[in-house]
Amino acid sequence: MERSLPLFLESIGYSAWERVFQRPEGYPYYHWLHTLEGEGRFELLGQAVRLTRGQGVLLTPFAPHSYYPASDRWSTIYITFGGAAAEAIMEALHMNSSTIYEEGEGPSFGTLFNDLFRRIERTPSHSDIDVSTDLYYFLMQLRKFGMLNHEPSLSQYYQRLAPIVGWMEEHLADNIGLPEIAAHAQVGIHALHELFQQAFDMSPYSYFIQLRIREAKKIILQHPERALREVAEQTGFNDVSHFVATFRKKEGITPGKYRDLHQTVDQAAVTERRGWSETVGEERVEEAREE
After folding, report:
1. Is the pLDDT of residue 64 over 50?
2. Disulfide check for 243: which of 18, 44, 194, 237 has CB 3.0–4.6 Å away?
3. Which backbone phi and psi does 34 adopt, to 5 degrees?
4. Which helix (H) or strand (E) holds 9?
């Protein structure tokens, strides 16, 4: 077990007859436990909850807890893990808290576990690095398909937002904002904001700007000779200076530098002849100011 890896697997297994555990000091690693058959009682953060088939619990290190069978037979599956980047990864996935999970519409917890277990057990040459990668994939799938506090899973949020995102992609060049997006979605602005925060961890308008910048990058790569003002207009920016400032804020470089980094020698020659700096004086001044 290589503890210097971002993630390492401390233990993994199946308990046909789960026992009574009392851990007032918690467990030193992240601990995933889900019910395969029967029912258990789990005491966490001063509350006792049922853990039935299709439910699991993710515990952070040293979280006080206890659990015991609540049926004649309580069968569980467990995974414990840590790693040099475990806390940072769990924070990034918004999973760094002790929480009860429920299965959503995607793969069952048992399926996710079996996929992980088979990859580890059936490959003799499976290295610690491979295990670390597989464990990360398991966590990503759990984050995507697991439901927290009876709320929809990420996958379900994505499905609900897919038509809205598709409409946004079709109207990148139009002069629209949050009210128009909410009107098309037929939901209130607050409700729309909550949906996007849950699915993408950003506001709907920030996501719309991200789509516009992505489209601008695509145009720049496919048509490096195209004037900067034209690229801005095709992606919904009526003001070139606003486009340049937004592009730089999102990408860390100006559109001109982005183009220069990705174009070929032949494309550079064409661009030089037509020249972004020769299109409009405002564009030349803004590029010089930003760079």
Report:
1. yes
2. 237
3. -135, 155
4. strand 8-15
Q: pTM, whole model, 2 decimals?
A: 0.57
**64 in Cβ contact with 43 (< 8 Å):** no
Q: Which residue, 78, 97, 55, is CA-closest to 9?
A: 78
Token output for 215: 């489209």
- Measured CA to CA, the distance from residue 245 to residue 253 in angstroms comes to 9
Both structure tokens of 91: 């924070």
Q: What is the pLDDT of residue 84?
A: 92
> Coil, strand or helix: which one is 238?
coil
Distance CA 245, CA 252 (A): 10
Please report which confidence band the pLDDT of residue 247 belongs to, taking 50, 70 and 90 as the band edges. very high
Residue type, 205: Y
How many angstroms separate the CA atoms of 104 and 96, rounded?
20
* Helix, strand, coil fractions of the chain, as percent rounded to 5: 50, 20, 30
